[in-house]
Amino acid sequence: MPRALGQPIRNAMTIDVEDYFQVSAFAPIIARESWPSRECRVEANIERILAILESGGVHATFFTLGWIAERYPDMVRRIVAGGHELASHGYGHLRASDQTRAEFADDIKRSKALLEDIGGQAVLGYRAPSFSIGTSNLWALDVLHEAGYRYSSSIYPIAHDHYGMPDAPRFAFYPNGPDGLLEVPITTAMLGQRKLPAGGGGYFRLLPYSLSRWMMRRVNSDDGQPAIFYFHPWELDPGQPRPEGASLKTRFRHYVNLQRMEGRIKLLTRDFAWDRMDRIFLGTK
Description:
Helix content: 25-40%
Shape: globular
Strand content: 5-15%
């Protein structure tokens, strides 16, 4: 949506609602069957996030796992009561690229129905776990459209060892024309011919805050586009349990600068204008 003259660009603040033991990088060492018996910390972390957003006057989009929503329905209702958008992260944090078309359709329909029943509002958006929609499974965007979703934020146009579609457009686009699903990629900034990850996650914790702020401001000023920023509740939780057996690279990526994350999110709420995905890209009220 075009912004009023003189008004700052509204960027999209997004949270992927999952717990530390559901991270894809931990899948080789944490059995899915063990999830119900593990200490779940997502509810307390979401409360901290809601307080930060309320203090900063920020409304956000919460891409929420059905598995989490089923166990913490009151938490989901608090998200909605705070004026935030409820969107889907699938049911059980299965990568879209690891599912057949039929399995994926079942997963996204199940999570959509569950979230709508608990939250009492239409679920329009979806984000694939680990940004797992790319060149090999673009059919997933058609399945999302068929299931009643209006937009996806599942493509990260960078090269990464776990995800990425480097040749994808950098900004919102309709892969199958304006009557189809809108895809809103995670934000990248250009430095010469190189795309830099500017949309949050582990990069935001690893890089100096000033660099992340510079990249997002560059997207706003030079490209005239909103930035899409994402993070997870467990990223504000340095006291989370630390499972044994993870590789050195996985441990570094997961735990680096967790203790600084809350302060950085508070800075973001002051340094940029933010809103929900549906309001920015679909024009909802």
